[in-house]
Amino acid sequence: MSPIARPDTNTLFYIDPTWFEKNGRDLREEMHAALCQECRAIYPTPADARVVDRVNPQTGEVTRVDALWECLADHCAHKPEFITPTTPLMTAIFRALLANGNNPMSPEQLYKRVGKSNAAGILRVLLSADIENGVMPFEK
């Protein structure tokens, strides 16, 4: 895969799980840390989560998903404290991607979700020299 020549506010970004392995961090621990108190009570440790069935409400399609992803996307992300005005920008971006099931999002989409900075500012942060929380450009 060739690198993205000139990323812009429509370039897609995602969380690269292999980044965590390479940097001695655990993505599941990071996901667990983003859970709300109610979900942490259900899953006291990252290891307590399991694979669960998720039903698409529009199609009825059933898929198997990690319970932490499901809890983050279907419950925690809808709480006002999930992303607040005082949440650091990179944390907000990471949480937005978690809530989106790690489906790639552009800086434009991330701006609409986190409501911080602007799309160009988010792009600058994402393209900084230090990759944070494994968020990097998505290559098809």
Can you tag this structure with a few keywords?
single chain; 140 residues; alpha+beta; two-stranded antiparallel ribbon; 39% helix
Average pLDDT over all residues: 91
Count of strand segments: 4
Query: In angstroms, what separates the terminal alpha carbons?
Result: 8 Å
Percentage of residues in DSSP E strands:
5-15%
Domain count: 1
Give an account of the 3D structure:
- The protein has 140 residues and is of the alpha+beta class.
- It has one domain (13-137).
- Helices cover 39% and strands 11% of the residues.
- The chain has seven helices and four strands.
- The strands form two sheets. A two-stranded antiparallel ribbon has the order 1-4. Strands 2-3 form a two-stranded antiparallel sheet.
- α6 crosses α7.
- The longest helix is centred in the C-terminal third of the chain and has 11 residues, at 89-99.
- The chain starts with 12 loop residues before the first strand and ends with a strand.
List the helices and strands and how they pair.
Layout: E1 13-15, H1 17-22, H2 27-34, H3 37-42, E2 51-55, E3 62-66, H4 67-74, H5 89-99, H6 107-114, H7 119-126, E4 135-137
Antiparallel strand pairs: 1-4, 2-3
Helix pairs in contact: 6-7
